[in-house]
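Supplementary Methods. Inverse-folding protocol.

Structures were first reduced to a discrete structure-token string of length 508. This string, shown here, constituted the complete conditioning input.
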């Protein structure tokens, strides 16, 4: 028995050795991997601030580093990359050298999403319009301590981050404008044919609307599907600006600010544009497509949308908003007018508690645009900041939009540059279709059972459709002019007229 016990003494040593090997492996997992994860968190934080710095500095007026040369876009991408590296170096205590950045290769599949590279490093790239940036850190080899026992001397770490401009607030700015004389009213004509002969307020005078449209550029917005066509494709761009809204943010002008024209700054956000150009043309194709028949990216703004729509030919197009009710407006034998339009009246979105502030806004007591206008006027008079006039679902209506308020009333029949003094919420109201020189075949106000009621005796064509449609399909479009204090916080807090810089968020 003694001999047998002696023969097993070596087994104990073997078990101890195996246990130590296992313990060392567990220590490697606990210590080395923990150290690696901690280092990766630091690198991820650096990548995050780097991507935010890249996209912000690519879209600012900061001075250009001497090393950044080339076209304006190449220079802007270079400036963003230089700032990103500076921020990352400060966060990680100068861990990466210029040579490492120069040799860094982004192996991710980014050719479609971030095709605009920087001249500084392949690992810092941008979308074509520089509204998003992607930063990949050079791979780092973190030395192990206990892992060496297992033959693992280093652990490779790499982090990446993507950041972009917050463009969600831009899609309600449509390409029409108000001048000071029209902006103070409760109703305005946001579009009227330059040869307008209608005797129908508010489209019966030069101060009632801008008699043209804003030639807003396309900077390119991946969220909306637009590309940086800038000022090309006028008709298609107009239609898309109506259906989707402007694809980039605009800002307001204050005395002393640098004037930044929207067309001049396209397609790079070196600063937010605060000046727009008017186009005096009627542009029937772009207007009718924008309001009724749709663009190549979205259905017409006033066309019946969502589950209520009977049109199955445009189901592949994006629908930003949906209709809650629709109506057929096409008279018999009237030609190719749109058949079904959104028919949701503004009073459908009134907050039930609003009547306690403005009795004329009581739900159930409104069924004409004249009564709705009286509600708006009374609300402005007895404004109470403790309650909003409208509910948050107003934002979901295709008729809800925003239009810039310009510094001067646009000149009738000529183009010009105008400063944006404010951005006003509007609700698209009455449209005039099939008009000749004296009357229109269709006068449609949402929620009303018939043509709008005349408000003055001089409006001799109001509510008197012509027997035979005229040759002008779209003659005029009116809207209610709202105020921010009428809107709930869910809408007003994100209103596009807020002055200042763009908001940038982490994407990935």
């Amino acid at each position: 028995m003694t001999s047998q016990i002696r023969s097993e003494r070596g087994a104990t040593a073997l078990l101890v050795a195996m246990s130590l090997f296992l313990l060392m492996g567990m220590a490697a997992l606990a210590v080395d991997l923990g150290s690696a994860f901690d280092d990766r968190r630091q690198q991820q934080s650096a990548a995050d601030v780097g991507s935010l710095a890249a996209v912000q500095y690519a879209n600012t007026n900061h001075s250009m580093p001497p090393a950044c040369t080339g076209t304006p876009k190449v220079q802007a991408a270079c400036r963003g990359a230089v700032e990103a590296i500076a921020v990352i170096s400060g966060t990680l205590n100068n861990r990466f050298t210029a040579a490492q950045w120069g040799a860094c290769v982004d192996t991710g599949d980014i050719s479609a999403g971030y095709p605009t590279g920087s001249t500084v490093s392949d690992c810092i790239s941008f979308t074509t319009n520089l509204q998003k940036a992607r930063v990949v850190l050079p791979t780092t080899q973190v030395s192990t301590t206990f892992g060496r026992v297992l033959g693992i001397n280093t652990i490779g770490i790499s982090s990446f981050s993507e950041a972009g401009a917050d463009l969600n607030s831009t899609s309600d700015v449509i390409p029409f404008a108000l001048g000071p004389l029209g902006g103070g009213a409760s109703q305005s004509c946001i579009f009227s044919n330059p040869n307008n002969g209608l005797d129908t307020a508010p489209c019966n005078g030069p101060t009632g609307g801008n008699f043209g449209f804003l030639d807003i550029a396309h900077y390119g917005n991946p969220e909306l599907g637009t590309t940086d066509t800038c000022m090309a494709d006028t008709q298609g761009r107009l239609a898309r600006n109506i259906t989707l809204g402007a694809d980039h943010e605009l800002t307001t002008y204050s005395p002393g600010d640098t004037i930044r024209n929207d067309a001049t700054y396209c397609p790079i956000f070196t600063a937010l544009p605060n000046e727009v150009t008017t186009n005096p043309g009627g542009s029937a194709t772009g207007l009718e497509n924008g309001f009724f028949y749709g663009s190549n990216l979205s259905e017409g703004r006033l066309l019946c949308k969502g589950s209520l729509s009977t049109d199955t030919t445009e189901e592949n197009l994006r629908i930003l908003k949906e209709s809650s009710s629709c109506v057929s407006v096409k008279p018999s034998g009237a030609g190719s007018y749109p058949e079904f339009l959104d028919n949701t009246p503004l009073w459908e979105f009134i907050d039930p508690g609003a009547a306690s502030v403005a009795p004329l806004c009581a739900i159930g007591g409104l069924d004409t645009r004249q009564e709705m206008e009286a509600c708006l006027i009374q609300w402005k008079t007895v404004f109470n900041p403790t309650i909003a006039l409208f509910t948050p679902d107003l934002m979901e209506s295709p008729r809800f939009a925003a239009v810039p308020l310009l510094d001067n009333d646009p000149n009738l029949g000529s183009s010009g540059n105008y400063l944006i003094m404010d951005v006003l919420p509007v609700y698209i109201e009455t449209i005039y279709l099939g008009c000749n020189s004296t009357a229109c075949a269709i006068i449609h106000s949402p929620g009303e059972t018939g043509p709008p009621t005349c408000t003055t005796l001089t409006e001799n064509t109001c509510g008197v459709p012509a027997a035979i449609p005229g040759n002008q399909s779209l003659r005029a479009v009116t809207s209610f002019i709202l105020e921010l204090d009428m809107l709930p916080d869910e809408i007003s807090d994100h209103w596009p007229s807020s002055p200042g810089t763009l908001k940038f968020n982490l994407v990935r």
